[in-house]
Amino acid sequence: MSSLPSLETLLQQEAEHRLPQFDFDLAWQIGQGIQQRGREMNAPIAIEVYAFGQVLFLAALPGSAPENLEWMRRKRNTVLLTGHSSMYVGFANEQKGERMAQQRNIRQEDYTDHGGSFPLLSPQGAIIGAVSISGLPSEDDHALALWGINQLLR
User: What is d(CA 77, CA 89) in angstroms, rounded to the nearest whole number?
Assistant: First the structure.
């Protein structure tokens, strides 16, 4: 689906995909758009749109598994903790030589730095929530979450 982006590209994506407004209806739009695209791709994914302290959209497509929900929660927690996409956090940790799985100060059952969760950001960069995908390779989960947000910005 996509090639591996650089850290600079990932930061640029975050800067370029800020939302001028966001509400429950827009969360549903993002989720439904990704769900439709996932069906067209026959992708075995789970989809979550999280904002305002709660899950606003959740769907699981055929072929997804219960652990996809757990992966999305962990990816989302990473986004909410760091303010960056889970893929950016993974690449940054890799460059430092210590992925999240090796970090003692991180609860492994609550966080992961695998790609697939992208922050929902206000124009000023404040974190509203996250769009998370699980079921594909990390870079494809990331690209699909970003695609969903991009649909609102067209």
Answer: 12
Side chain identity at residue 93, one-letter code? N
CB 90 within 8 A of CB 115: yes
Closest CA to 97 of 113, 117, 111: 113
Could you give the CA distance from residue 54 to residue 19 in angstroms, rounded to a whole number? 18
Q: Which residue has the tokens 């827009």?
A: 26
| Cβ atoms within 10 Å of 136's Cβ, excluding its own | 20
Q: How far apart are CA 145 and CA 136, in angstroms?
A: 11
Q: From CA 8, how far away is CA 19, in angstroms rounded?
A: 20
- Measured between alpha carbons, how far is 36 from 44 in angstroms, rounded to an integer? 12
* pLDDT averaged per 10 residues, the chain (length 154): 79 96 97 98 98 98 98 98 96 90 85 96 96 97 97 88
State the CB neighbour count (10 A cutoff) for residue 92: 15
Closest CA to 131 of 153, 108, 109: 153
